[in-house]
Write a structure and sequence with these properties.
With about 220 residues, this protein is of the alpha/beta class. It has nine helices and nine strands. It has helices at about 40-55, 70-80, 100-110, 120-125, 125-135, 145-150, 160-175, 200-205, 210-215, and strands at about 10-15, 30-35, 60-65, 90, 115-120, 140-145, 155-160, 190-195, 220.
Length: about 220
């Protein structure tokens, strides 16, 4: 079997149509189907959350991996929604993770009001370095996934990844039963979660408004 004919099930595709992996969400048309995380669509919500917590928020540093085409699309979409919210997004993309220390120096010098990361497997592996930097500089940050908040980040909003993995398993079952990936629509998240770490909020001197706190799916105390 040629590699391009091997069925593939994505678990967290950023934008599989824009990246050229599928023809459309409804009719993928090739050997790939799965779950799209709506990455670009969720950043307006995350920036709105930051603005709700910090009404005077105006400058946000955005760290992302320039070597990932999907992250490039996400970075542009995030830039597009920042302006209407009155936020200047400082692009701190890196071509190599070894540049992170340089970026940290730039962020420390030109201190923003908050920090966000567009996460991919490469930057995920630098979780400790990112969180250590944020703690040292007492910088509030928002993340796409709860693992960063459970490890010491301030806040995350995004899909429930456990639910997405379960749904991906059902798609794999369909393929094993003979349905072609081309005929299985790419699904989108149906469950989302807001996670807040109050321990981190206290450490960096941030107060989470009650109207945001009450909406959290998980609060770490």
């Amino acid at each position: 079997m040629r590699p391009r004919l091997i069925p593939i099930v994505m678990v967290s595709g950023a934008d599989p149509v824009a990246e050229g992996y599928v023809d459309s969400l409804a009719r993928p048309g090739g050997n790939i189907t799965g779950i799209s995380v709506l990455a670009s669509d969720l950043w307006p919500k995350r920036l709105e959350l930051l603005k709700e917590i910090f009404p005077k928020l105006s400058r946000v540093a955005m760290v992302w991996n320039k070597g990932n085409a999907g992250m490039a699309l996400e970075a542009k979409a995030t830039q597009d929604v920042a302006g209407p919210l009155g936020i200047t997004l400082q692009d701190r993309g890196v071509k190599d993770p070894n540049e992170l220390e340089v970026i940290f120096g730039v962020v420390s010098k030109d201190r923003p009001d908050a920090f966000l990361t567009l996460m991919d497997p490469v930057l995920n592996s630098y979780q400790k370095q990112i969180l250590d930097f944020l703690a040292k500089n007492r910088l509030p940050a928002i993340f796409e996934n709860r693992t960063f908040v459970e490890a010491g980040g301030l806040i995350s909003y995004g899909p429930n990844y456990a639910d997405m993995f379960r749904r991906a398993a059902t798609l794999m079952d369909k393929i094993l039963k003979g349905i072609k990936p081309a005929d299985i629509p790419v699904e989108q998240p149906t469950k989302f979660e807001l996670v807040i770490n109050l321990n981190t909020a206290k450490q960096i001197g941030v107060t989470i408004p009650p109207n945001v706190l009450v909406r959290a799916d998980k609060v770490i105390r």
